[in-house]
Amino acid sequence: MRVGAQIDVAAPPELVWGWVTDPARTLHFMAGVTRWEVVSEHDRGLGARYRTLMRVGSAEVGGLVETVEYDEPFDIAWTSVTGLDQRGRWRLRPSGPNRTRVELRICYGVAGAGITGWLAEHVAAPTVRENLRRSLMELRRQVEHEQARARAAARRAAAGRAAVPH
Amino acid sequence: MASETQFYLQFPAEAAAHSAGEQLRGEGFDVQVGPSPYGGDGWNAVARIAVADADLAGVQARLTELAESAGGGLDGYDKLLR
């Protein structure tokens, strides 16, 4: 099964990139993902590895994935090393001043599992689509919130500097 | 190959969402209208249709135009890729 989803975020690609590549933030916005644990020396970048688990219905499936593409701040892709057969990609592109078009694509199946695997992945398709949509919406909410907070802090700092007598 | 694609349109008011939904049904979309999910403001129309990759940008432009003419906007899409 291959699913893809796209959304626009009112923030520059560099800010969105900081979120999608930080493993400590993954569980904060990725719907259905219950584990994203770093198991390599470096926590991000080419070759970084993560032990993952995602909830599909009443089951949890997962495995070990490795980052196979890391083109900052535009593309990151991963593929499974063991466990659930999966590939994923974040694609970030500027879509206007201070705006980013964010696309998430995930392709997964159960390699060699025959009709049982085929059935399982087709039954799960609506859940996976819904999780992708929820993930993108939550990512947008958190990125835009962080940007708003940073701007407010900058305004307060500027006001504070202006109030200091010379 | 055409992929079943769901487009998410947002509107500030229920009447605008229903009006756009009716228009899109007339253009062959399968449409569901309801309050914005996940606690968002406004109303949401989910328009589903099979689209070839080559036609995706054109459909997005059409839906953006329709949504913006009613004070709303196109808020992304998702698709099943076989």
Task: Please characterize this protein's 3D structure.
- The complex is a heterodimer of chains A (166) and B (82).
- With 166 residues, chain A is of the alpha+beta class.
- Chain A has helices at 13-20, 26-29, 114-163; strands spanning 2-9, 33-38, 49-56, 59-71, 75-83, 85-96, 99-109.
- In chain A, strands 1-7-6-5-4-3-2 form a 7-stranded antiparallel sheet, covered by helices on one side.
- In chain A, β5 (75-83) and β6 form a beta hairpin.
- In chain A, α1 (13-20) crosses α3 (114-163).
- Chain A starts with a strand and ends with a helix.
- Chain B has 82 residues and is an alpha+beta fold.
- Helix content of chain B is 37%, strand content 43%.
- Chain B has helices spanning 14-26, 53-69; strands spanning 2-11, 30-35, 43-52, 73-81.
- A 4-stranded antiparallel sheet of chain B has the order 2-3-1-4, with helices on one face.
- The termini of chain B are close together.
Distinctive features:
heterodimer; A: 166 residues; alpha+beta; seven-stranded antiparallel beta sheet; B: 82 residues; four-stranded antiparallel beta sheet; 2 helices; 4 strands; globular
